[in-house]
Hints:
The structure is a single chain. The protein is an alpha/beta fold. Helix content is 43%, strand content 13%. A 7-stranded mixed sheet has the order 3-2-1-4-7-6-5, sandwiched between helices. The longest helix has 22 residues, at 93-114. The chain starts with 8 loop residues before the first helix and ends in a 9-residue tail after the last helix.
Amino acid sequence: MSNVHWFPGHMAKAIRLIEEQVKIVDFVIECRDARAPKSTRNPALENSIGNKRRLVVLTKKDLCDLEKTEKMILELEADGAEVLLVDTLTEPVKKLLIEKSEIILKDKREREIRRGIRPRAARALIVGVPNVGKSTIINKLTSRKAAMVEDRPGVTQALKLIKLNDQLEIVDTPGVLWKKFESKEMGIICAIIGSVKETGYPLDLVTDYARDFLIENKPQTLKRVYGLENFDNFFEDLGRIKTFLTAGDEIEIAKTRKHFLSDVQRGDLGRITWD
């Protein structure tokens, strides 16, 4: 099967907006899903960001395998990024993001002081593919003290400027889909975690991949959660356990697969990092 490929006109426009804004911001905040930090890295955004300093925010901390994720954080840091692993639902996102931003801006602030320049508010661009938690972060940041403003120099009406405090402003951008996935596996992983609709790939392909990954890496979890003795007829046995049956006592395999995928995405099968 060939890679899924789509890139509507509004996505191309969003990329152009990001490229324009990157030139005038101090650093970039890139949101990724901690369950798949590599697969939710959008090559189109990578090209647009270039060598600009970045803060990688890994969301879904409550759903990822922390041990695996910590190893990936070390890789990102070795590549020059600051990294923030966060549970956007329970942790103080705004406070943590400002603290990490100050680390990135430290050298800039010191240069301005040495030159006798009055420090201006730094500006960051926040980017990310859909459904990695960027909208949740924006909602956390836009309190009464962080009013959203559109009519500001350098910010088009397609973008929004969020003032966090006197030292930091963030430009929000539209979520940008992939032009195409670098590999079929990356696309399947993104479908598993819900970063793209699973309809982008056949349901059988997505759920078979998730099943095989979990059989290899978390077999005891599958047995415990579903009460299975073996995995020889995984979806048939699961469908009968869940009583997903037709009037003729036939197992509804498609319904069973969708239920399994929902369990994975909700975290019912525990913390999983797919990359």
